[in-house]
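[STRUCTURE TOKENS]
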Amino acid sequence: MNRSILIVEDDRSFGAMLHKWFERNGFGVTLASGMEAAQEALTKHTFQVVLSDLRLPDGDGIMLLTWLNEKGRREPVIIMTGYGDVQTAVSAIKLGAFDYLEKPINPSILSQKIEAASSSGREPVEPGEKRRSHKGGSPVEQETIVFGRSRQVKEMYDHVDLVAPTQMAVMVTGESGTGKEHVARIIHQRSSRARGPFVAVDCGGLSTELAPSELFGHMKGSFTTALENKTGFFAEADGGTLFLDEVGNLPYGVQMQLLRTLQEKKIRPVGSATDRLVDVRIVTATNEDLLKAISEGRFREDLYHRINEFTITVPPLRERSEDILLYALHFMKEANLELDKQAAIITPEALSLLTQYGWPGNLRELRNVIRRAVLFCRDGEITPATLPYLPEKRSHIRPESEALQSKPEMSLARDPGSEKEKIVRALEMARGNKTKAARLLMVDRKTLYNKMHQYGIDL
């Protein structure tokens, strides 16, 4: 395939600079000034990579990414973003973007990411070619999505089919790593809002001070660091779905503002004197017992009932062991592409270990295990020897009360040199629940997030 790139950028001088840079590096370049022009170019041609600005005059990079997904196109998309929009760029990654770049662009980083995208193995679909779909409740087939076949999962998707066409607020519950955001996306895709944006927000990363600005936006000059107008997550999700992940971690002081917005269907950006109408469907997710949080005064009961009109529970992997091989084979194919390996077989002995294990980290842990196994595999086979850290006899999970019993030696105040190891261990013990992990480490949640960012921990 020829090295071809579509650049979507409305800043003419910056777009011209990128155009010249890519031409000098052997690319055939098409430059589009907005989303409509990009869609027209994509309708007529295929590209090896799409490089799009996040903010466009007639839309944004996430809307373009959604359009590509709807068309079944698989060109890797790299989103360019300003400093203040990194959270939105991360949401784009969750939606399927290959990567993102912060402006001002560093040429060496640009070169690395373009080369990675060009060799990612994600071949584009020819213009006009449709992705395959099935009727009767089965989802659109894409290589990146695998649906379990166990009774529990089929029942869960029956509930998704039931509630998706409605406008009800849905709460997705389940342990960390079970795929709650995946379920939220399916609800969006099977709703009347499928052509609108899907915006995912990690509530655990919102501080009391910044949450109103992140959720509702702000006006230039409304506070010291407000150097320009900012569009909040609600406005970005207008006409579509807003997914609030780890909603139990939303600062208590912001919960009343969220309740008002949901009741009145209006937002007021920080520093603005007027309200703005928004049409947003709310889907939330939590691995925390919110009723307990209500009894402890950490979560508002009125907000809980407003966001929990319908509950979908994602079953843990240990309760659907018949799905393990299906997911393991999918993760093996992903890892082959990512690591340039040729793993083709999971031996019966290795499969026995996988199905007997308790999977406290659920699908996220299974994916990590398979990636490591593919990295170590020889002769195209995943064997017990390629599962070096998987405990053979750990087929059951310790009771949470035992696992989460506070231990002074876990405190980050003791032996700062082992902070990273303690944080990873606490997150494992809490099954990814950052509130519980912070409690184990004897720090507040904000400190935990800062430390995770400092050490590059993404669990």
Notes: The mean pLDDT is 81. The first strand starts at residue 4 and ends at 8. DSSP finds 19 helices and 16 strands in the chain.
